[in-house]
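Postdoc handover notes: sequence design on the structure in folder B. Input tokens:
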């Protein structure tokens, strides 16, 4: 690891002991960190806001540890974007921890699905058949797309709406002896909606997000 890169950055953000902390990482983790710092420096962003904020410094050191364990280069770039945005548009955002936690938990594929969903962003809710177009674009197994939907829902980056429609006559359900539904006279559809939190999250991890 080129320690001069780390030292120059550490001094500029007011964490001179950072290079000493990073020396404890093993080779692979150091490689991730060096890539991360190169990306930060390449961005040309002014990180001086971090110098006078212990809160931002704590978040930064936490993110470094997550970067060191990352297996996907594209995810490291998302972490870079997050740090840039923490020291600019999101410096006063009250839910930094939530977004950092979401980024930690979601895979690059999950983030790709989220981006594709919001690039479409219909005025109304869309049904799971939209997953078919994502499957075609990504070449992923359909089950992985639906799994990504569920993960995004769990982080409140999407909303789910369940609609029940009568198939004629009264809406009714018939249960068998096991207590399970044997027959029901309704059609159930699940719709997904974009929401403001999802838009904000994409801005938090992006460097060129053009969503509304």
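Designed sequence:
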């Amino acid at each position: 690891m080129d320690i001069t890169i780390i030292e120059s950055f550490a001094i500029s953000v007011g964490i001179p002991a950072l290079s000493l902390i990073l020396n404890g990482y093993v080779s692979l983790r150091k490689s991730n960190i060096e890539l991360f710092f190169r990306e930060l420096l390449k961005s040309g962003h002014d990180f001086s806001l971090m110098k006078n904020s212990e809160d931002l410094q704590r978040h930064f050191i936490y993110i470094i540890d997550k970067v060191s364990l990352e297996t996907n280069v594209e995810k490291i770039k998302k972490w870079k974007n997050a740090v840039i945005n923490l020291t600019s548009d999101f410096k006063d955002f009250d839910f930094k921890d939530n977004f950092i936690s979401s980024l930690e938990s979601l895979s690059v594929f999950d983030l790709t699905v989220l981006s594709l969903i919001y690039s479409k962003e219909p005025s109304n809710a869309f049904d799971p058949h939209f997953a078919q177009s994502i499957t075609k674009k990504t070449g992923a197994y359909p089950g992985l797309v639906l799994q990504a939907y569920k993960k995004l829902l769990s982080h409140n980056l999407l909303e789910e709406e369940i609609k029940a429609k009568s198939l004629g006559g009264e809406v009714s359900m018939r249960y068998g002896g096991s207590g399970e539904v044997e027959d029901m006279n309704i059609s159930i559809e699940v719709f997904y909606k974009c929401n403001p939190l999802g838009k904000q999250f994409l801005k938090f991890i992006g460097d060129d997000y053009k969503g509304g």
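Context for whoever picks this up: The mean pLDDT is 80. Don't rerun without checking with the PI first.
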